[in-house]
Write a structure and sequence with these properties.
- By secondary structure, the chain is of the alpha/beta class.
- The protein has a single domain, classed as Oxidized Rhodanese, domain 1 (3-Layer(aba) Sandwich).
- Helix content is 27%, strand content 11%.
- The strands form two sheets. It has a four-stranded parallel β-sheet with strand order 2-1-5-6, covered by helices on one side.
Length: 153
């Protein structure tokens, strides 16, 4: 352990946007409309997926039609604060009826849990056909013309 100040030289960081990793509202709406294409994965807690509760960022209760629920809280070990082992992660997808290697779009309320879903599927399980809907329920639920299911409220 050192004491004192630490000086770093400024560096230039170039951002390279990767559109193939992101799904738009229109992409998700097309999946809902046709019932084909990527599997939608809702990474929110079950009480939000079921419509019993909602986040403050959601305008409406419920889920996007056709979505399967794989809550992000199941991705990691609570004690060690690390991702669970790959076999256990793979079982979560299998239990949700989602084939490894299938096209997938993850979402949550605002994109933060969906990013964990994307990381688990794409980077840990190796499914490079995974995208993330960063607008998530905060974006989808604002548009009354877009359907939602599990709307118990």
């Amino acid at each position: 352990v050192e004491a004192g100040s630490n000086r770093r030289e400024p560096k230039t960081f170039k951002v390279h946007f990767r559109p193939e990793l992101v799904a738009s509202r229109q992409d998700v709406a097309q999946v809902v409309k046709t019932g084909t294409g990527p599997v939608l994965i809702d990474n929110r807690p079950p009480v939000q997926y079921s419509g019993e509760k909602k986040s403050g960022s959601a305008a409406r209760f419920g889920a996007i039609p056709g979505a399967r629920n794989i809550p992000q809280g199941q991705f990691y070990n609570k004690a060690g604060h690390t991702f669970t082992d790959l076999a256990q992660l793979g079982n979560l997808w299998q239990e949700a009826g989602i084939a490894n290697g299938s096209e997938q779009i993850t979402y949550c309320n605002t994109g933060h849990w969906a990013s964990l879903g994307w990381f688990a599927s794409s980077e840990l399980l190796g499914n490079k056909k995974t995208r993330m809907y960063d607008g998530s329920i905060a974006d989808w639920s604002l548009r009354k013309e877009l359907p939602m299911v599990n709307t118990k409220q």
